[in-house]
Amino acid sequence: MHKGIRNSIADVPGVTVGHVTLDEKINEEESVCTGVTAILPHAGNWFEHKVPAASFVLNGFGKTAGLVQVDELGVLESPIMLTNTFSVAAVLQGTMDYMLAGNPAIGDSTSSLNLVVGECNDSYLNSMRRMAVEPTHAAEAIRTASADFAQGAVGAGKGMICYGVKGGIGSSSRIAGDGAEQFTAGALALTNFGRKEEIAIADWLPENAPEKRPDGSVIIVIATDAPLDSRQLKRLAKRAAIGLGRTGTHVYNGSGDIIIAFSTAYTIPHRQHSPFTDLQLLRDDHEVMAALFQGVIESTEEAVYQSLFHAETTFGRMGRVVEKGLFE
């Protein structure tokens, strides 16, 4: 399939990504090697103009926030935020502060707010117990979001390890269909999983891999401009698991493998006088739906590899070093 112009999730119109990267050696034993990544579904007010969304939990060893309501109501009303396991609370607070500042009605004259935060454990390289991520870092990641964003060991991906080498943030996109029925499917992956012997491109990895570490996790975000509802988006999210599997992972017991999908084709207003919603959705049996499935699978697989291709050898706590793959 054809790739988008940027070959990233930002090929889906309106989607932008922002990072804050924290990299500081504290002393010989401790280092801050972590960050925050924000995925914005559009440039407007996310609470007032929600987007359809769904999630799929392939393996639930994770500490995400907000997915219960996403699946219950089928909408996303905030950016999707990514960080390390012990910084979910700080990122949740910072995102809350940012959104309350722009929406005085939330929690007062209207309903509360559902925020979505995903995480992976970066404690091999990052002194995670220091909880260096602050609420202001979440707001900064949102404010600086752009369609042209960095990949690799940046943002939430700064301290992540994938298949025994440096992982992090990766993204890719595919164009599904043609003519009037042409849509984009994009994936962004936060990769922190797998062992060297599993990966399909093992020959491209260095011989030495980190010592035994937790099973790891991956958060995958899928975006599309195809007009889909929450049920259909969950179907797309499930296909991302196939793309993940193509890279070789066995999905271990201690791995949090979570996929969040949303569409930018239409928004759902927070306030509406009519009791009815009139939407035009893509039929499940249309050939473009099958093409979207393929696009999600391919872009997810490539997003994992892009996280490796863009990453750099990274130094972390206790003198640990995680090398980049041999891709040059």
What does this protein look like?
- The protein has 328 residues and is α+β, with helices and mostly antiparallel strands.
- It has one domain (9-271, 280-317): L-amino peptidase D-ALA esterase/amidase, CATH 3.60.70.
- 22% of the residues lie in helices and 29% in strands.
- The chain has helices at residues 67-73, 88-102, 135-143, 230-246, 287-310, and strands spanning 16-25, 31-40, 49-60, 75-76, 80-84, 116-120, 161-162, 165-166, 169-178, 181-193, 216-224, 256-263, 268-269, 314-315, 321-322.
- The strands form four sheets. Strands 3, 4, 9, 10, 11, 12 and 13 form a seven-stranded mixed sheet that branches. The chain has a four-stranded mixed sheet with strand order 1-2-5-6. A two-stranded antiparallel ribbon has the order 7-8.
- Strand 1 (16-25) and strand 2 form a beta hairpin.
- The chain is globular.
- The model has no long low-confidence stretch (mean pLDDT 94).
- This is Aminopeptidase.
- GO terms for molecular function: aminopeptidase activity.
Note the topology.
Layout: E1 16-25, E2 31-40, E3 49-60, H1 67-73, E4 75-76, E5 80-84, H2 88-102, E6 116-120, H3 135-143, E7 161-162, E8 165-166, E9 169-178, E10 181-193, E11 216-224, H4 230-246, E12 256-263, E13 268-269, H5 287-310, E14 314-315, E15 321-322
Parallel strand pairs: 5-6, 11-12
Antiparallel strand pairs: 1-2, 2-5, 3-4, 3-12, 3-13, 7-8, 9-10, 10-11, 14-15
Helix pairs in contact: 2-3, 4-5
